[in-house]
Amino acid sequence: MTQDKILCDIGFIGLGVMGKNLVLNLADNGFNIAAFDLSDEKVQAVIAQDEVENTTGTPRVYGCSSYTELLSQLKAPHLIVLSVPAGAPVDQVCENLIGAGIQPDDIIIDTGNSLWLDTVAREEKYKSNFLLFSSAVSGGEVGARFGPSLMPSGSPYAWARVKPIWEAIAAKVDAKTGKPLERTEPGQVITEGEPCAAYIGPAGAGHYVKMVHNGIEYADMQIICEAYHVLKSGLNLSGDEIADIFSKWNDGPLDSYLMEISVEVLRHKSSDTDTPLVELILDKAGQKGTGLWTAMSSLEVGCPAPTIAQAVYARSISSFKELRTQASSLLTGPQQAPLTAAEQEEVIEQLHDAMYCAKICAYAQGFQLMKLAAKEHGWTLDFASIAKIWRAGCIIRAAFLQSIMNAYQQNENLDNLLLDAYFVKELNDRQLNWRKAICSATMQGVPIGALSSSLAYYDSMRSETLPANLLQAQRDFFGAHTFERIDKASGKKYHVQWSTKERETILVAS
Fold this sequence. Notes:
single chain, N-(1-d-carboxylethyl)-l-norvaline Dehydrogenase, domain 2, Single alpha-helices involved in coiled-coils or other helix-helix interfaces, seven-stranded mixed sheet
């Protein structure tokens, strides 16, 4: 196909894995794209792929060799999507576009994994040059190609312009069942169903929500990995046997994308050895920082998120492979007799419930964190809408997000998912199996930090009284930090004169 000069609907900068697939998704949905990347090879690759997949007979993707050419190829006011690494590269592209002549009413959409604070600062920095609009994207390369979950935030005016485009390319969900409407082939377009794209709020809100999404993703993945570890090391099951169990579980309340891909991973054999590939992969986990950002934010906001934090720690400890290898020859674990077949079946059933309960806790932590952050930053977040757009297209899509959506639709002021009637019943019915699974894994010597920290979170949340009374007394002893008393008026502060013989309790503030 020849590239005749036309004015395109959208400019696109950054044609890596995510960028290339977003471009082709936009093209499938009827938009013409002017594409640019510092690598001309990537530009030519996306044009070539469009020529193969395009059945319209007219080019949909037009390559550009400079920022100036990109702007000249677009309809005004310009709409430009960035898919570049977070941090300095985003600012560099913005400065280059300013140099190329971008106008104040033009819109730049940052779709990368930018830290939300950077997004807030950028919107302020560039507000006289153009409209910066952020839109977090989840779903990986397949989601980007056939329908991602989109979390846009920033100028309401910009959202009005972007909305029809984002709703067109987003994943879709059947409004009645909550099930994803899958699009798996190039050229397919789904026009019915609810789009997994919704305006989140002011600048930074969308990237914050995506950050929490990724924190939940860390926790969800670690929960699955710990279950795998129990089944493999504790019960000595093969990869195929574990895949069979996960596949069965995926037909119930644990139905999720992460369970689905875990089954595929466990069944996959290495082409050169014909052995399970997962057993040949070095057990050192990588991370790009969004889970860490979530854990740090939970500490800053004062929101307990131990399952998410533990998932970050699990990746960190995995990186100390040599140290773990050394310690494995020195430190002993429990010696347990092999379980009978009946005992194994009990452990498997208990482990299912433990995973489900821990998963509920992870999501509860994430949603409470978003609620507290929204209060701190003056955002109005619609949690039912957030759960709704996570039902398809994103990495943490799961069947029980429909129940989370229902919980917030019934009570938009819900403080924590653990207070919702549906989840109260689910947790109450399964908590005993949860405890038994953790006891079994512990006695087998299998580390289950995410599963056990989730149970500690659950038990802390259901405890009317915690030992923080002793902690406050300790703090007052060494630092005169004061404390309140349950038998006195709320808000009054007391201090014990610990250094004196009488150790008198005095009122110091009210």
